[in-house]
Fold:
Amino acid sequence: MRRSKAFLAALLLFFCIFPLGNGKYTASAADGKYYVGGMTAGFLLGAGGAEVIETSEVTAEDGVHAPARDAGIKAGDCICAADGVKISNIQDLNNALSRSGGKEIKLIVRRSGATAEISIVPVKEKKSGKYKIGVLIRDTLSGIGTVTYIEQKTGKFGALGHKIADENSTPLQISDPKVYLCSVIGVKKGARGKAGELKGLFLNDKPIARAEKIADTGLFGTFEKDYDFSESELVEIAPIAKATIGKAFIYSTVNGIKPCKFEIAIAKVDAENRDNKNFVIKITDENLIEQTGGIVQGMSGSPIIQNGKLIGAVTHVFLNDPTRGYGIGIEKMLGE
Structure:
């Protein structure tokens, strides 16, 4: 899964989840039971500062300057503090530059997990009269993906099934994370050599969960206690060792907000795979293929059910055949 544009995707809607759960989770719920996910969620993650998208020039009264570039700041850097004051968002950085009055300030910049102090002199832009350093920045990252499971007793959830990284494959920091219900409003079909994607709309009047951790096996956190699980199927889990080649199902959402069930075939089981590619799966549901072309971006996290047990989640698509892809074993995700 990638960020905003690249984060997007999921599946189709054929026949809906049967309501086997008994509603909202409680502290007295039985151990070992998990609500099947499949709902598409919008993830809004703080960048942990002001992340530099690119450097630029600033036109001042005395000419054109590039303060950030000249100071060694690069795209992908994250500005975390200015003169000892924490920078959490774009407004914090603008305030720090305004306070400088054009005098040198010291920025704490994070790059590839390490931090460094960089001295820089803001320049007063001729047109706006504001002090700038010549950067295009963002402070939040967003996209959509699929929730895999929610533990009945605790409300703990797992989603995506793979690490979240930017387009340069740099792992992301997590800050002030929010998870919203997302409505799928369109699908770009996958084709040989080109991945498809879901188009989603955040329903962000209220978060449905709190994201607490990013790991190599996905995004993890806790659902809000008032989330309604009355139409969610309740299952037990099974380890990779119990998975077999043959018929299985995935749950996902490719239209609106309601997850539905689609038939697949497990073509290969590899419990020892270190890249979390424990299954090779093939979409066999003709309705899903008609709607999406197969696996599309955003299906990441779609739960895989075999013999009534949760065994894993969809993670990747084969670019040369969008009806095929990889899945991760559920114990790998639960280990987080």
In short: The longest strand covers residues 135-151. Confidence is low (pLDDT under 50) at residues 1-31, 167-171.
